[in-house]
Amino acid sequence: MVGKRDDYISWDEYFMGVALLAAQRSKDPSTQVGCCIVDEDNRILSTGYNGFPQGCSDDVFPWNRNADEGETKYPFVVHAELNAILNTRGKSLFGSRLYVALFPCHECAKAIIQAGVREVIFLSDKYKDTVSDANSRRMLAAAGIKLTKLMPKKKSIIVNFDTGEV
């Protein structure tokens, strides 16, 4: 009798993998962030990535990070978390878990709280010492939202389109 394989990924690794795959849709040349929202039964409710709103051409609006180079992307880009929340088209997210590659900013934290998300699982915390991060953490904690930094067992998951193997 052959047993099941034991090197399969956890639910957390799976959903973070979906978030990272969604990030690959971002056309931002400097930062690609993805998000995946799931319900308590481990069903995907929505995904999102950072980019411009529908109808705002990514060939016309700026991708600059520095104001000295002209207009910046910051007033125009929809972050991955907000995009995923909006992509549900009104479905309830109450009690859901949100997987995101980069810890949410204070603006996304507001949307996460209002949407009823109960836990945020994040991979990167590179802005940990910023004011935005501190404000985000303060609001999320006040709202009782659990924050979990994912520590995956696997360092990478490779998807091979040529063979269909991973």
Detailed description of the structure:
This protein is of the alpha/beta class. 26% of the residues lie in helices and 16% in strands. The chain has 4 helices and 5 strands. It has helices spanning 11-23, 80-87, 106-115, 131-142, and strands at 34-38, 44-49, 97-102, 119-124, 146-149. Strands 2-1-3-4-5 form a 5-stranded mixed beta sheet. α3 (106-115) runs parallel beside α4. The two termini are 25 Å apart.
- Helix tally equals 4
Distance between the termini: 25 Å
Question: Any idea what the shape is?
Answer: globular
Structural class: alpha/beta
Q: Within the largest sheet, what's the order of strands?
A: 2-1-3-4-5
Number of strands: 5
Global mean pLDDT: 94
The helix-strand sequence is HEEHEHEHE
- Tell me roughly what share of residues is in helical segments: 25-40%
Strand content: 15-25%
List the SSEs and their pairings:
Elements: H1 11-23, E1 34-38, E2 44-49, H2 80-87, E3 97-102, H3 106-115, E4 119-124, H4 131-142, E5 146-149
Parallel strand pairs: 3-4, 4-5
Antiparallel strand pairs: 1-2, 1-3
Helix pairs in contact: 3-4
Explain briefly what this protein structure is:
The protein is of the alpha/beta class.
List keywords for this structure.
globular; alpha/beta; 166 residues
